[in-house]
Amino acid sequence: MSALNLGISQGLFHYLLHSIETTPFYTLLGIKLRALGEGYAELELVASEQHCNPLGVVHGGIYMTLADAAMGNAIRSLGIKGMTVDCSTAFISAVQFGETLLGKGQILRAGKNMLFARAQIFGGERLLADSKATFFSTGRIEFE
Questions:
Q1: What pLDDT is recorded for position 60?
Q2: What pLDDT is stored for residue 144 in this prediction?
Q3: CB contact set of 25 (below 8 Å; sequence gap of 6+)
C-alpha cells in the first residue's frame, strides 16, 4: 500500500516520505508511512517477535516510539521541525506479535515555539495506547 497525501504540498509530502523511508531507526523497527495531512500523520508497523517483551506481548516502548513518530510527523506535515520536550503515554491494551499497529498523530495546538500533539495507537479497531506530547519548534523544513 502506498502512502496517501491528504492535502499537503506534493514537495513536502515527497520530502517527508523519503525521510521516513530512509530514517535508520524507522527502518530498524519497520515503521512505514500510511498517510499525511495538514497537522496529521498515520504510521504503521507489523509487530514481530523482536518487538516483544519477556511476557510475549509487544513492548510498550514500541507503542511510545510509534506515537512519538506519528506526532512528530504530524508537526513536520506543517513544514515545522520539532523536538519532543515531554511525552506521556497511557497503555490501554496489549497485543501479540503478528498484528499491524497503526499510530494516528495530530496537532492539538501549534504556537510560535511550542506545539502540542496527541497520538493514539491501534491494533485493528482496538485502542492500545493514548499519548500526548509537547514539542519545541526548531525552525522550518527546507525541502525545495
A1: 97
A2: 76
A3: none
Nearest CA-CA partner of 46 in 107, 123, 115, 105: 123
* pLDDT value of residue 143: 87
Closest of 67, 87, 86, 75 to residue 128, by C-alpha: 67
Segment 80-106, tens digit of pLDDT: 999 999 999 999 999 999 999 999 999
Q: Rg for the chain (alpha carbons), in Å?
A: 15
Name the stretches of the chain with pLDDT < 70: none
- Confidence (pLDDT) at 1: 72
**Is beta strand 40-46 parallel, antiparallel or unpaired with respect to 80-91?**
unpaired
What was the pLDDT predicted at 74?
98
**Looking at domain 4-140, which of 3.40.800.10, 3.20.170.30, 3.10.129.10, 3.30.465.10 is its CATH number?**
3.10.129.10
